[in-house]
Specification:
It is a single chain. The protein is an alpha/beta fold and 503 residues long. 62% of the residues lie in helices and 7% in strands. The strands form 2 sheets. Strands 3-2-1-4-5 form a 5-stranded parallel sheet, sandwiched between helices. β2, α2 and β3 form a beta-alpha-beta unit. The termini are far apart.
Length: 503
């Protein structure tokens, strides 16, 4: 008789694979338990250090006939740790919840394990996986985020290497994400299914998905995007209609091979700038100089075109979740004011004084680029906090306008050299760069006008086309190679600037 949907027999679970890790992960509130540690040597010190590193107030009783100086010193710093300098006795198990055995006597270790089993206590025996009820995994911690790694007792060395890799790879900003998540969870309304859906959207960007935006943020982003595109279209239309006819524009775009060279230059420059957070100015300057274009035309064209390219780059970095909003807010106003001041002074006093500033910047960046590359191959250290980010942004904006470039090399490289995550530095600096270049270009436009529109149009088309590719790649390249790329770009930029002193 065929079975209907009402009488289908339940499907049994498939039998477990014989060679898989069957351990059940559990995170214990160790500070609410009592732990007995037997052994006061190097292994005992290692076990005690691991427990106290995760639960500093844990109540641990250490029983041994001898204690190493390191273990005694560690116990002195934790009042909840008690040392009993005596041989082990089965009565030591009374009043404890967990037992960890770390002596160098294997027979004694197995005897303690047997005593613990009789009293129904979970026991861990160092270097004897078969006698363990549980293992102490390698721990990766980023604030409230904690990851335990287990190899089922097969290879502590591999667990240690994985811990080092994850500690280096996972950004410190994950702690801030967790703090915000608890607030978001409290504010999300609706039933359980709706809450799960909302929290899945919030955390999608952690696995490479699109960055989460609240409905209000989405609405304002769309308004800002539409306003930006409308302003750009109006600016281009007014410039073209004032200086040229549409027929002239079409003739250049459809028949001029030089125009497509400018598009290729803009594409390559923006790909590098969006990927590394710097390099648009130096790549376009070097490329255009090789075409025998005058320095004045190069400078004005780059500043005008970079406004559009950096706007597209910043938008896509924001879309892909590469922006630290707090860092962006700190850099924004000082960077804009510095750019306006630099552009105004350059337009009034000419490039003569600007040439005096660039060598000092170039020497500083040459040393900084070497330092960044060295950091790519060294172990990560503690992150340094920059207390004068506003001054750094103002200096970067000023030198970018007055010295002909330097916003990305100065600001991005300085922040990365201080230990900040390259992905978020590059994204935040790229978003800020739009406002800096916009202020600079607007000042130049008001003071000296605009020229060489073919170059500008080609750079704009190429830059906007490259922006989404660069923003997407910025979150996918390993941190070490991003350090190398940034360092090499800084060195190239500095050497390109210093060459004028010798030519």
């Amino acid at each position: 008789m065929p079975l209907t949907s009402n009488n289908v027999l339940p499907q049994s679970e498939p039998p477990p694979q014989p060679d898989v890790n069957r351990l059940f992960p559990v995170f214990l509130k160790l500070e609410q338990l009592h732990v007995l540690l037997v052994g006061g040597g190097a292994v005992g010190f290692e076990k005690l250090s691991a427990m106290l590193a995760n639960s500093p107030a844990a109540a641990v009783t250490v029983v041994a006939t001898w204690f190493s100086p390191e273990l005694r010193l560690l116990a002195e710093r934790h009042p909840a740790v008690q040392l009993r300098e005596q041989p082990y006795h089965p009565t030591d198990l009374v009043g404890h919840d967990l037992v960890i055995v770390a002596t160098n006597d294997k027979e004694l270790n197995l005897s303690i394990k047997a005593d613990a089993t009789r009293q129904r206590l979970l026991c861990n025996v160092a270097d004897t996986p078969a006698a363990c009820d549980f293992y102490l995994g390698s721990i990766v911690q980023k604030g409230d985020l904690k990851i335990a790694i287990s190899t089922n007792g097969k290879s502590p060395t591999i667990a240690k290497r994985l811990r080092e890799m994850l500690t280096h790879t996972l950004p410190d900003e994950l702690h801030d994400v967790l703090q915000r998540m608890s607030q978001i969870r409290e504010k999300v309304g609706g039933d359980f299914a709706h809450k799960v859906k909302s929290l899945n959207a919030v955390t999608a960007e952690l696995t490479g998905g699109p960055a989460y935006e609240s409905p209000a943020a989405t609405r304002w982003r769309k308004i800002a995007t539409a306003s930006l595109l409308a302003f750009a279209a109006m600016l281009v239309f007014n410039i073209l209609s004032y200086y040229f006819t549409w027929q002239q524009v079409w003739d250049v775009a459809s028949s001029s091979q030089t125009f497509y060279i400018f598009v290729a230059i803009g594409f390559g420059a923006q790909l590098i700038d969006g990927l590394l957070g710097m390099g648009y100015g130096v790549v376009t300057a070097i490329s255009l100089m090789t075409l025998n274009i005058s320095p004045a035309a190069v400078s004005s064209s780059i500043h005008t075109a970079e406004m559009f390219a950096s706007g597209a780059s910043g938008y896509h970095h924001y879309r892909f979740g590469n922006v630290n909003k707090k860092l962006f807010k700190v850099l924004l106003i000082p960077g804009v004011l510095g750019a306006i001041l630099g552009a105004f002074l350059l337009s009034k006093f000419g490039e003569t004084y600007g040439s005096y500033v660039r060598p000092f910047l170039a020497v500083y960046l040459l040393l900084l680029g070497i330092r960044i590359i060295s950091k790519a191959f060294s172990k990560p250290g503690p992150r340094k906090k920059h207390k004068k980010l506003g001054f750094l942004a103002a200096a970067g904006g000023f030198l970018d306008s007055f010295g002909g470039g330097g916003w990305g090399p100065l600001v991005t490289s300085t922040l990365i050299a201080g230990g900040r995550t390259p992905q978020y530095v590059i994204g935040s600096v790229s978003v800020t760069e739009f406002f800096v270049t916009f202020a600079s270009a607007l000042t130049f436009f008001a003071t000296i006008g605009i020229s060489h529109w073919q170059i500008i149009l080609g750079l704009i088309v190429g830059g906007i086309a490259a922006a989404p590719f660069a923003a997407r790649l910025a979150g996918r390249i390993p941190t070490r190679w991003m350090f190398v790329g940034v360092g090499l770009m800084v060195i190239v930029w500095s050497l390109w600037s210093l060459r004028k002193l010798f030519l």
